[in-house]
Amino acid sequence: MDTKEIIEGLMPDDRHNVVPAAWAIIHSNDTQMLSAVSDALPVIATAVNHLPPNSEPAFRDYRFAPALAVPVLTCFKQADSCRCSLYPASNGLDPEKEQRLGFIKIIKEEDHLEEYRVEYTCICAHGETHFETILDESYPYPLWYWKRVDRPLSGS
C-alpha cells in the first residue's frame, strides 16, 4: 500500500482496508512512509476513534489493529528510535517481526509447544531495555505478552 492508500484506508468509510492499512503501519520501518502518514496523525487518530464496532460477532474486534497503529505513529512522530513504550501496552506485536524490522534483538527463545506457548528474552536494539515476552497460541489468534524487566536477563 502506498501512503495515500494507508491514510484513506484508516478512514471510517473504508472498513475493508482499515486493517491492512493499520498493519502496513505497524509492520513498517520505512521512515519516509511513516513520516508522511504521521503528518496525518490527528486526522487518523480521530478517524480510528470513530470506527464503528464489528457488525457481526468476531473473535477479535477489527479496531484492535488501527488502535495500535495510532501509538506506533505517535512514537515515530516523537522521534523515538525504539518502540519500548509500545510493547507492554499491546498484545499484538510479534517479537520475531520486531526483530526483522530492527527494533529488538531476540536473545533466547524457548518453545513450550505442549502448552501452546513460546517464551522470548528480548533486548531493545536502540538501548538496554530488556523484555520477557510470552507468545500464547491457545486462542484462535496469537497473543504476545511483553513484560519489561529491570535486571539483565540470562543469556544476554
Quick summary:
With 156 residues, the protein is an alpha+beta fold. The protein has six helices and four strands. A four-stranded antiparallel beta sheet has the order 1-2-3-4.
Q: How are the secondary structure elements laid out?
A:
Blueprint: H1 3-9, H2 18-26, H3 31-38, H4 41-49, H5 64-77, H6 95-100, E1 104-112, E2 117-124, E3 130-136, E4 143-149
Antiparallel strand pairs: 1-2, 2-3, 3-4
Question: Which key features would you list for this structure?
Answer:
alpha+beta; four-stranded antiparallel beta sheet; globular
Tally of discrete structural domains: 2
Structural class: alpha+beta
Largest sheet: 4 strands, antiparallel
Helix content: 25-40%
Describe this protein's structure.
The chain has helices at 3-9, 18-26, 31-38, 41-49, 64-77, 95-100, and strands spanning 104-112, 117-124, 130-136, 143-149. It has 156 residues and is of the alpha+beta class. The chain folds into two domains: 1-79, no CATH class; 81-156. Strands 1-2-3-4 form a four-stranded antiparallel β-sheet. Strand 2 (117-124) and strand 3 form a beta hairpin. The protein is globular and about 45 Å long. The protein starts with a helix and ends in a 7-residue tail after the last strand.
